[in-house]
């Protein structure tokens, strides 16, 4: 009996083999029996192969039947998304979040019947405080001027723009649709570090040119920065701002490699890289390694671009290192025109699990820290701050303004507007909607003439919702949101005003108290920060201490 139980797992293979023999015996009686021979014979061959292969233990023990497991595992995301998850399950965006984008992109009614589905008495719930005397805002195209005293060509940016997504990560059709939508809606499109492609040019929309550690589009053959190539491309009137990418939220501190097999002629043209050779993006920039050198690089790019706004994007890691940059700004007198704070919840086509889940600071803490550090150094007024990281609702954007942002960017929100269904197949080149694939056949699914207006619609309707929220709070401009306009529910059920959770630092606080006995988290790091180096003032970590002791 026990032996039968042990070998019952091979029953599917035995049945397939037996049916193959039966069908062969029936062939003289009916030609249709050949169909059975082909089907059951193929299953028998699969079963024999399963037993002989060495990669999958399940298939060796359960030939033929084991494939059922792999089939359901393959469609598990779709089963969960369509049949199991609730409207508020986030993986990483809830169905409710995605639905509001789809509706606004299609100019459909986005109202909700029967009241909120949110659990308003549970920890984590947040809300905006409204006014008894609301204002009515007739406009929704709010703008912010980006460009400090050293900038000759400031840019009036929308308060909501397309965040960095590279050509190659996104399809040609998606890039065209996004840029054409940005042109129609009057907002900006960040190129991502993959360079400016011909599809960005076709759209004609305003571009924020992101310069990563690979210097794509402005690099030498050795992968270093090429000032002549940069100056030529930056002179184009379509390029409105230059953004140095220090790190991104989904994989901060991580470089990358695009294998030669994935490099098409169009990607090679946009990135200015050779065909047939792996493309390396270093984790850090080879053009600078100290805070002062970063400031000098900012000044260099501003000069080479003819005075266009130049800034940098980062996900906050070591807080002291950001303070090193701020001290270098003060020491050199060179200030970026803007800083974009990317939360660790930001998206990417592919990232190591540990980096995506556990490296980098979330947007709320990162944005609050950058805003307060600039206030404490008394330089906040001359530097604009952008924010990115899961900002797809007007409520998300309003909260970011309250935490200190001057404008916001969204990547996945605009991806949804061109048809992304969150299949999470971005890294496979099998995107079902043609958004994140280089496969020309799959790209046909994304019809640019249909999707480009949806990009503009999503932006316009989100900005209208933002204007309505500002009006409900009694404000004349969304940038007037402050922390006291928001409340949050604590885990114990109590309410806390956001001004207690996101307090604003007094202007010049860090400068005035640097040499005092006062102690707090900010001052502790400010005193350890140096404009000369990113290295800590004293060795830390066992390995570093051992090396220092050995050297002595």
TrEMBL record:
GO molecular function: glutamate synthase activity
Domain of life: Bacteria
Ranges of residues in domain Glutamate synthase: 161-475
Region annotation (Disordered) ranges: 533-552
Pfam family, one: Glu_synthase
One GO term of the biological process aspect: glutamate biosynthetic process
Biased composition (Basic residues): 543-552
InterPro entries in the record: Aldolase_TIM, GltB, Glu_synthdom, YerD
PANTHER family listed in its UniProt record: ARCHAEAL-TYPE GLUTAMATE SYNTHASE [NADPH]
Similarity-based family: Belongs to the glutamate synthase family.
Protein's name in the database: Glutamate synthase domain-containing protein 2
Organism: Palleronia pelagia
